[in-house]
Amino acid sequence: EKGGFASFMAKEIHDQPAAVADTLLGRADAEGRLTLDELRIDPEKLKGISKIIVLACGTSAYAGSVAKYAIESWCRIPVEVELSHEFRYREPIVDENTLIVSISQSGETMDTLMAVRYAKEQGAKTLSICNTNGSTIPRESDAVLYTHAGPEIAVASTKAFLAQITATYVLGLYLGHLRGNLFTGQIKDILADLGKIPAKIQDILDREDEIKELARSMSEEQSVLFLGRHVGYPVAMEGALKLKEIAYIHAEGFAAGELKHGPIALIDDGQPVFVVVPSPRGRDSLHAKVVSNIQEVRARGAKTLVIAEEGDEDVQRYAEFVFYVPETPTLLMPLLATVPLQIFACELATAKGFDVDQPRNLAKSVTVE
Ligand code: F6R
């Protein structure tokens, strides 16, 4: 059932072209109008929302962080992302004009469920992005957008994460259309770019040996840092989380702009640093800023491991290692840039002889508080 792979995690990494394609399947009609799976509120009410709060934990919260960039850009609605357990233990400001978007693979995470219940009591509208049909969180929500990643067996989330990000894009396009922020043509263009993602993930998977070799050479590392800006920031956070949870290596993700506010003090000779580099075709200042961050850490002895877009020759001068991902619009880049980091963690943990599917101390579904 592992389909010839050494672990469920490896198999699920390879399931990702299908997870993204299936999550997009049948969502849009010829006019670019999108559909949600369940909608128990009047779309007119969704139209009137004044802010979105995304609630989730762990990897699912990083999907929420990616969503913030896309939804704010496409819909011009303020989006906050908050960990469910932080949200529920303060007195968050929500009302009937707030849309709560919960993201949960299992649909049973206790903190997320409780946070959603609290928000609902305050009159907020609730929408669930979930991978498990009929689980508690979608049942209790006003609207549901299912991710179609299929059952995820490995404790460390991979394909559910990419499917969650995909679903948040669908939600962004849905709201953008509903509120008149996006024209049909724009929606169609973005959907066309999304439609190309599965083949681009496959291209990365076909070249996975490049990153696996790097991973095996790094099995004795004590600490690995991950840097990113903009949508590359949550990708860096997710890369670090994967490494800590299955390879038990100290790993931290940072917003690259924070370097000089503290983390750069950690850099000394040989410190491995992954850097997620945005497209050089995108907002120009973003690429240049990240390239200068690579130079800053390199000048202090870091071993720079770069994830960059195909054709970005610039970065080679500053990198010990470069893995290229296919071109895509910046907002969609996490669907590609995350994959080599998942492969890296999975291969490194496998090389260390760990059970990557059942990491110590972790459960697949956190139904306790
Ligand atoms: C990490 C991981 C966890 C989950 C988190 C939320 O690989 O799997 O961080 O993302 O426990 O779980 P769900 O999405 O089921 O609410």
Automatic annotation (TrEMBL):
Q: Please write the reaction equations for the catalytic activity of this protein.
A: D-fructose 6-phosphate + L-glutamine = D-glucosamine 6-phosphate + L-glutamate
In the UniProt record, which is one GO cellular component term? Answer: cytosol
Q: What is its EC number?
A: 2.6.1.16
**Origin superkingdom:** Bacteria
Q: Please list the residues that make up the active site.
A: K364
Query: Does the record's keyword annotation contain Cytoplasm?
Result: yes
Q: Where does the SIS domain start and stop, copy by copy?
A: 41-181, 214-359
**Reported function:** Catalyzes the first step in hexosamine metabolism, converting fructose-6P into glucosamine-6P using glutamine as a nitrogen source.
Its subunit composition reads: Homodimer.
Q: Please state what the protein is called.
A: Glutamine--fructose-6-phosphate aminotransferase [isomerizing]
Organism field: Zhihengliuella halotolerans
